Amino acid sequence: MPELAEVEFYRRIWNAGFGQRVTNVEAHSDKRIFRGVDTANLLGSLTGAVLDASFSHGKQMLFRFSNGWLGIHLGMTGELRVEATDFPAEKHDHLLLRLPNVSLVFADPRLFGRVLFHQGAKEPAWWQTLPPSLESEEFTLERMTSVLQRRKKAPIKAVLLMQPFFPGVGNWMADEILWRSRVHPATSCGSIPPAGVRKLFLATKTVAADALETIASAKGTTFGDPPTGWLFHQRWGKDGTCPRCNTKLDRDEIGGRTTAWCERCQPRPI
DNA sequence: TCTCGTGTTTCTTG
DNA sequence: TCAAGAAACACGAG
Predict the structure, then answer these.
(1) Residues paired with residue A54 on neighbouring β-strands, in sequence order
(2) Given its phi and psi angles, is residue A141 left (phi above 0), alpha (psi -120 to 50 degrees) or beta?
(3) Is A170 (CB) below 7 Å from strand B?
(4) Into how many domains does chain A fold?
């Protein structure tokens, strides 16, 4: 599920372990999600460490322990869970942190997710160099305009999915942003007028903020769906209709991903 | 049996 | 060197 707001949702799930000392770590260390990681060092370092903070940025998460930094990317099918202390690891549970009161679990059937581990007083380099988040003041209209100028021929849908520029935007968020802006997903970036870019910019900010607000107000252990009236609710099925004009949504592969849009509200570029 | 997928990385082509 | 598209990764759900 993991796009911006879902990642934030999963980060909070592990809050149950704050302030507790890790008594044991279990890992399927031969799995793909540990590629490039010294798993022996990870296991040895986290055992006995205390979880004291966590952060999310786009689709990335970072958990601060007293003896290292654990980075997690959920890929396409990853999830974080909290289980009982004696919970036996299931087939796709690749990393388990045993704490006095709970077990923190990272599961991922398709193994597209990723674990990173870093030791040092400061955050890992890859975290420090992340692009400005969509919610930040550094994410500006000027920045977005220059990104689109540099990708003149690419369809806007594909560019919205580029994490170095739009951290946290995934397939459904991109479709939501385009639908709100009334821009066809196949429109080449170079052909979008300044007024259109401004609409896209404002929609990006709004979708990110509203999705995060949905998570904040859900405050339970279930991921609350976005408000009614979002394209989100219509884009999955084959019979989805436009929440604005009730036209049946079109579906096709654009920018390498399945894309849903309303041909009436988002006219195809000439 | 077959197709599809809420993501990234790497390869290929231009 | 860069932009853009395709393939690869792996496995469950429908």
Answers:
(1) A63
(2) alpha
(3) yes
(4) 2
Domain residue limits at A150: 141-261
Q: What is the DSSP string of A45-60?
A: HHTT-BEEEEEEETTE
Same-domain check for residues A63 and A117: yes
Q: Where does a domain end: A93, A128, A163?
A: A128
Kindly report the CATH number assigned to the domain that includes residue A55. Answer: 3.20.190.10
- Whether nucleic acid strand C comes within 7 Å of the CB of A238, the answer is no
Residue A2's nearest CA partner among A163, A126, A201, A200 is A163
Chain C positions with an atom below 7 A of a protein C-beta are 3-7, 9-12
**Within a domain: residue A135?**
no
Q: Is the CB of A59 under 7 A from strand B?
A: yes
Q: What is the pLDDT of residues A35-72, one digit of tens each?
A: 999 999 999 999 999 999 999 999 999 999 999 999 99
Q: Is the CB of A171 under 7 A from strand B?
A: yes
Asked if the Cβ of residue A130 lies within 7 A of any atom of strand B, the reply is no
Q: Is the pLDDT of residue A270 over 80?
A: no
Give the residue from A16, A132, A119, A115 showing the smallest Cα distance to A64: A119
pLDDT at A1 over 50: no
Bases of chain B below 7 A from a protein C-beta are: 4-9
Residue A1 Cβ under 7 A from any strand B atom: yes
* Span CA (A79) to C1' (B4), Å: 20
